[in-house]
Specification:
By secondary structure, the chain is α+β, with helices and mostly antiparallel strands. It is 42% helix and 10% strand.
Length: 434
């Protein structure tokens, strides 16, 4: 189960620590329901107030005062409420708000995506920069305003197919008036495979949001997207990784904060988001580990470090407060998605390495372990996978195996010398006759 974030005002003692202010503190109870606590400047002797907030069918934010908190007087369940009673009152208020005759608007695809991602956050899961960016780029412009009830199999199929032929979106300045794009040559089999794989990933996100809406009884039927199948044979991309010499070349070609980020990725196998969220207290000097509190699948894990990895994090943590980020940019700010891409690409060019993504350093970490004899279950645990399926898919061919050893020992092993046959030119008469 994902870890639930503890409320900052669930107890009297925690509420006493809040600064007196007319601006309330808010807690997300579930998608669309927030509970607030306001410790007013002139009401300290009476206790704070409980509030609830939600949105109407038209999207307008509404707020209500539920009662006073049991900071001073004991709760009576009506005018004075405990934290749990306030939560129940907030849910009851939102339920009555939504049950009004005109409170059931037509759910759009954009609404379904927003509520689905909000629900994932409430459950302790990261919605992810990739999910929101993917929805903004590929789903919302074409389907966002459509009612879910109006979706048809044909409409969704045409949308899926159009993504394959659409120009590839490139990074664009915020000040630009036009989005940078690049035409895609779909006659190239690899380019076509990649575009279909992108379409499948986007379809998976859309289906997840629509299925969530169906399970939560926001829509009646799911046949339109349930019957739409993804493109087949699109997952055969070659997993790329750097060997030890290439890893060192990349480190030598980078500097400063980027070099620390690359080194941390190579010596932990962690994803960029996991690295960016690391704080000083996540580094355990005694045991030589880093603690990944929140990962893609919600599972926490401890990553043991080599001597080089421990030395890296020891240097990064030296003289820093426990809640400071371990990895920072050269200007001292925390890393954010996409901020490293330009300098990372330049480092690859200086090192004369093929273009890879920062995420593929994770593959380099795993492949090095497998080649050095680590069992796949250990590799899966280090990467934070729930099983060995992904490790077997990507790295099993690197591990010593009975099958590979037997083939190398028994298969034909011939020495093929360079050809010494010289092709003679054909006579002119023969060429003319031909």
């Amino acid at each position: 189960m994902p870890r639930q974030r503890r409320s900052g005002f669930s107890s009297r003692s925690s509420r006493e620590k809040l600064c007196a202010s007319d601006a309330p503190e808010w807690e997300l109870l579930s998608p669309g329901i927030r509970l607030g606590y306001r410790a007013g400047r002139g009401t300290r002797g009476q206790g704070g107030a409980w509030l609830a907030a939600s949105r109407t069918a038209a999207g307008k934010r509404v707020q209500i005062r539920l009662g006073r908190a049991d900071d001073v007087l004991s709760a009576d369940g009506e005018a004075i409420l405990t934290h749990e009673q306030a939560k129940e009152a907030a849910r009851a208020w939102v339920k009555s708000l939504r049950s009004a005759p005109d409170a059931q608007p037509a759910l759009t695809v954009g609404d379904a995506l927003d509520r689905y991602l909000e629900a994932r956050e409430a459950e302790g899961m990261k919605s992810g920069y990739d999910a929101r960016s993917r929805a903004k780029a590929h789903i919302l412009p074409n389907l966002g305003s459509l009612r879910v009830a109006d979706l048809t199999l044909d409409r969704l199929r045409r949308w899926r197919d159009a993504m394959v032929k659409a120009p590839k979106l490139l990074r664009t300045s915020r000040l630009a008036t036009k989005r940078n794009t690049r035409a895609v040559d779909i006659s190239d089999e690899e380019a076509l495979r990649r575009r279909r794989d992108t379409a499948n990933r986007t379809l998976t996100l859309l289906k997840a949001a629509l299925n969530w809406a169906h399970r939560n009884q926001l829509v009646e039927h799911d046949s339109a997207w349930r019957l739409l199948q993804p493109f087949h044979n699109t997952g055969a991309a070659r997993v790329r990784f750097l060997d030890a010499a290439e890893q060192q070349r990349l480190l030598n070609a980078s500097e400063g904060a980027l070099r620390d980020l690359i080194a941390a990725a190579l010596m932990t196998g962690a994803r960029f988001g996991e690295l960016a969220r690391l704080t000083v207290r996540d580094f355990d000097r005694t045991n030589g580990t880093v603690f990944i509190e929140r990962s893609k699948n919600g599972r926490a894990r401890h990553v043991p470090l080599t001597a080089g990895g421990a030395a890296l994090f020891e240097r990064l943590a030296a003289g820093r407060a426990s809640l400071d980020p371990l990895l920072r940019r050269d200007d001292g700010d925390p890393w954010k998605p996409a901020q490293y891409q330009r300098t990372f690409k330049a480092a690859l060019e200086r090192a004369k390495l093929e273009s890879i993504s920062l995420h593929e350093l994770r593959h380099s970490y795993a492949s090095a372990m497998v080649r050095n004899g680590a069992p796949l279950i250990v590799v899966a645990e280090a990467l934070g996978h729930s099983g060995t399926r992904m490790a077997e898919k990507h790295y099993a061919h690197l591990a010593p195996s009975f099958v590979a050893d037997t083939i190398r020992r028994t298969a034909p092993d011939l020495e093929v010398a360079a050809s010494t046959v010289v092709l003679l030119a054909r006579p002119a008469a023969a060429r003319a006759g031909a």
